[in-house]
């Protein structure tokens, strides 16, 4: 077994926030401890456009992180940077978003308006709990009259300690329904935020860490970086096993402690004494064994569950020749008590 720790492969970490570092106002267990021990330079990359970078940094400091506004990149910042290529400085723009988004637009040299009658050149939309019908109607009128439509991100939900709330993507869907116009999106899963983040850290080998397959993981993959999914937020074990190739993480961890564990413990391969097989005529994956009593992961339900998931992924995600498989996965079966207990902990 290699003694190489996972964090040793990389020179920086690009980190999601909601579901990865915190959930609403509550810290994700083990995240701070794992990242502190890993010691990688960090940039927090978030699709949430409702708060200014300094406000995010203030919350992170309250959780024990040593960071400031420059350690945070929001999708609102990415949207403003994207707009520079298509909207001339000084243009009128209508913002459906928080005050921090409006401030970014003003700082970029745009003139803010609130009515379609002012003929804005563009509409920017980011998450803002205060967005109402009248505001959305002005945005829809503007877009129907030819304004460019840019969204900070398309996340349909916003994770909180109470559960999943309505995200910016769901609000965007209302505008799309009214206008028939799809926005250009600046945030994850598109790769520019990750490329800009790596450049800010002067990183050549960053690892992208997140909890959501269709944004964090898909975006990191699209950027060409290794991705680590922590099973602490939106995407669960079953969804991960059946993910399409573009959304499959390079690595999986029960939590951030995976960074300071042996690298091979996070790879899709047989783990902790488990093996897996798949019949060509059966879309289910069979997880077998798990009798390696010397492996401490089996004593921890969360880590045993990830060990079984990685083992199952090793046959679900790859053909016999090692090429990515697109064959659907419809279920998981087990043939031992240890495997059954591990899979029972999946969500």
Automatic annotation (TrEMBL):
Supply the NCBIfam families for this chain.
HAD-SF-IIA
Annotated source species: Corynebacterium xerosis
MF (Gene Ontology)? hydrolase activity
Q: Which keywords label this protein?
A: Hydrolase
Q: Which InterPro entries match?
A: HAD-like_sf, HAD-SF_hydro_IIA, HAD_sf
Q: What is the lineage of its organism?
A: Bacteria, Bacillati, Actinomycetota, Actinomycetes, Mycobacteriales
Name of this protein: HAD-IIA family hydrolase
Pfam families the UniProt entry points to? Hydrolase_6, Hydrolase_like
Keyword field contains Ion transport: no
């Amino acid at each position: 077994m290699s003694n190489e720790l996972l964090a040793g492969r990389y020179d920086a970490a690009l980190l999601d926030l909601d579901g990865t570092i915190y959930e609403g106002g509550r810290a994700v267990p083990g995240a701070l401890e794992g990242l502190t021990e890993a010691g990688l330079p960090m940039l927090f990359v978030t699709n949430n456009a409702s708060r200014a970078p300094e406000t995010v940094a203030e919350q992170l400091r309250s959780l024990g992180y040593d960071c400031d506004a420059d350690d945070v990149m929001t999708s609102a910042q990415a949207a403003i940077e994207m707009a520079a290529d298509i909207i001339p400085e000084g243009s009128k723009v209508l913002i459906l978003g928080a005050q921090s988004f409006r401030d970014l637009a003003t700082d970029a040299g745009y003139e803010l308006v609130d009515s379609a009658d002012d003929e804005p050149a563009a509409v920017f939309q980011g998450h803002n709990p205060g967005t109402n019908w009248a505001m959305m109607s002005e945005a829809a009128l503007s877009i129907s009259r030819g304004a460019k439509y840019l969204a900070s991100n398309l996340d349909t939900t916003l994770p909180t300690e109470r559960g999943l709330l309505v995200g910016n993507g769901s609000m965007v869907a209302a505008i799309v329904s009214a206008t028939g116009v799809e926005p250009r999106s600046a945030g994850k899963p598109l790769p520019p935020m990750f490329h800009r983040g790596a450049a800010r850290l002067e990183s050549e080998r960053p690892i992208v860490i997140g909890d959501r397959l269709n944004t964090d993981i898909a975006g990191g993959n699209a950027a060409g970086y290794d991705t680590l999914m922590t099973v602490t937020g939106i995407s669960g074990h079953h969804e991960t096993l059946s993910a399409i190739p573009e959304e499959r993480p390079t690595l999986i961890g029960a939590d951030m402690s995976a960074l300071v564990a042996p690298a091979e413990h996070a790879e899709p391969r047989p783990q902790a004494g488990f093996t897996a097989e798949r019949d060509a005529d059966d879309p289910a994956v069979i997880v077998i064994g798990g009798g390696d009593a010397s492996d401490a992961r089996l004593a921890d339900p969360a880590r045993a569950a990830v060990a079984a998931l990685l083992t199952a992924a090793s046959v679900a995600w790859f053909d016999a020749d090692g090429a990515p498989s697109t064959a659907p996965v419809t279920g998981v079966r087990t043939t031992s008590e240890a495997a059954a207990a591990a899979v029972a902990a999946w969500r």
